[in-house]
């Protein structure tokens, strides 16, 4: 019995799980290839809303994973889909984020804009170019009652220079100015994981990630089994310190556990 025989899809986190910086986690490409060969659907599931699915796929291809485009699930895709269910087709949507997010909005039959004029919704993802003027436009729209969806609420962004402000830090700025709260797509909220599982046609998905507060908490929130790999942020001790219903289903040093023989 292996973990691969128990599940029909892997919902894989990226940073700290399949790669670190510019290099794959050792053994990760082989582990993913083995899962594919065993017939599992694969989804690379990222909270990052700055890059397009194609850019994510290109990066994964460079480091040895060779994903199909539909194997990539981003929080920008999930947030745009959420929004499309909440507002009428053709609605004007204020986009705080990159052109990749604008494109997701456009693909769902909504009309992206950069000002509050006519905006019935605000969609927020991280862009390194977002400034006060854009936040002010979003503030006007949200205060006027616009639906507000955030791609993720990660407070920090890990970089070579250390932790920098993440999407969640800018979401908090807007929360402070509006007394409103956004709907959230990315982990640990459930829409991104649910959409990834649905797109894979999965009945028994396994969420795989390196962070307890996003990947594992998201799996718990979505009622999915999870595997914590110790190749990134969280430790076994931190996992075991959590209440039982918040712990990962499985904990392992790395992805090689997927093909290893396990009990029962
Ligand atoms: Mg991670």
Automatic annotation (TrEMBL):
<feature type="active site" description="Nucleophile">
    <location>
        <position position="13"/>
    </location>
</feature>
<protein>
    <submittedName>
        <fullName>HAD-superfamily hydrolase, subfamily IIA</fullName>
    </submittedName>
</protein>
<keyword id="KW-0460">Magnesium</keyword>
<feature type="binding site">
    <location>
        <position position="210"/>
    </location>
    <ligand>
        <name>Mg(2+)</name>
    </ligand>
</feature>
<dbReference type="InterPro" id="IPR036412">
    <property type="entry name" value="HAD-like_sf"/>
</dbReference>
<dbReference type="InterPro" id="IPR023214">
    <property type="entry name" value="HAD_sf"/>
</dbReference>
<comment type="similarity">
    <text>Belongs to the HAD-like hydrolase superfamily.</text>
</comment>
<dbReference type="GO" id="GO:0046872">
    <property type="term" value="F:metal ion binding"/>
</dbReference>
<feature type="binding site">
    <location>
        <position position="15"/>
    </location>
    <ligand>
        <name>Mg(2+)</name>
    </ligand>
</feature>
<feature type="active site" description="Proton donor">
    <location>
        <position position="15"/>
    </location>
</feature>
<feature type="binding site">
    <location>
        <position position="187"/>
    </location>
    <ligand>
        <name>substrate</name>
    </ligand>
</feature>
<dbReference type="Pfam" id="PF13344">
    <property type="entry name" value="Hydrolase_6"/>
</dbReference>
<keyword id="KW-0479">Metal-binding</keyword>
<dbReference type="GO" id="GO:0005737">
    <property type="term" value="C:cytoplasm"/>
</dbReference>
<dbReference type="GO" id="GO:0016791">
    <property type="term" value="F:phosphatase activity"/>
</dbReference>
<feature type="binding site">
    <location>
        <position position="13"/>
    </location>
    <ligand>
        <name>Mg(2+)</name>
    </ligand>
</feature>
<dbReference type="Pfam" id="PF13242">
    <property type="entry name" value="Hydrolase_like"/>
</dbReference>
<keyword id="KW-0378">Hydrolase</keyword>
<dbReference type="InterPro" id="IPR006357">
    <property type="entry name" value="HAD-SF_hydro_IIA"/>
</dbReference>
């Amino acid at each position: 019995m292996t973990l691969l025989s128990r599940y029909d899809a892997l919902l894989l986190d990226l940073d700290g799980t399949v790669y670190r910086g510019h290099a794959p986690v050792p053994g990760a490409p082989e582990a993913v290839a083995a899962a594919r060969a065993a017939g599992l659907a694969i989804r690379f599931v990222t909270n990052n809303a700055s890059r397009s699915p194609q850019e994510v796929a290109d990066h994964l291809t460079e480091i040895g994973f060779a994903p199909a485009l539909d194997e990539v699930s981003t929080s920008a895709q999930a947030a745009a889909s959420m929004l499309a269910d909440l507002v009428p087709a053709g609605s004007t949507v204020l986009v705080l984020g990159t052109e990749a997010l604008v494109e997701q909005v456009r693909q769902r039959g909504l009309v992206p804009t950069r000002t509050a004029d006519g905006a019935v919704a605000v969609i927020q993802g991280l862009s390194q170019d977002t400034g006060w003027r854009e936040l002010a436009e979003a503030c006007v729209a949200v205060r006027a009652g616009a639906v507000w969806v955030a791609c993720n609420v990660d407070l920090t962004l890990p970089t070579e220079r250390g932790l920098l402000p993440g999407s969640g830090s800018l979401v908090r700025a807007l929360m402070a100015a509006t007394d409103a709260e956004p709907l959230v797509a990315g982990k640990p909220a459930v829409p991104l994981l649910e959409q990834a599982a649905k797109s894979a046609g999965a009945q028994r998905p396994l969420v795989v990630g390196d962070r307890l507060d996003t990947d594992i908490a998201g799996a718990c929130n979505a009622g999915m089994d999870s595997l914590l790999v110790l190749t990134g942020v969280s430790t076994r001790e931190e996992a075991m310190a959590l209440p039982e219903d918040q712990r990962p289903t499985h904990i392992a040093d790395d992805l090689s556990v997927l093909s290893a023989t396990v009990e029962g």
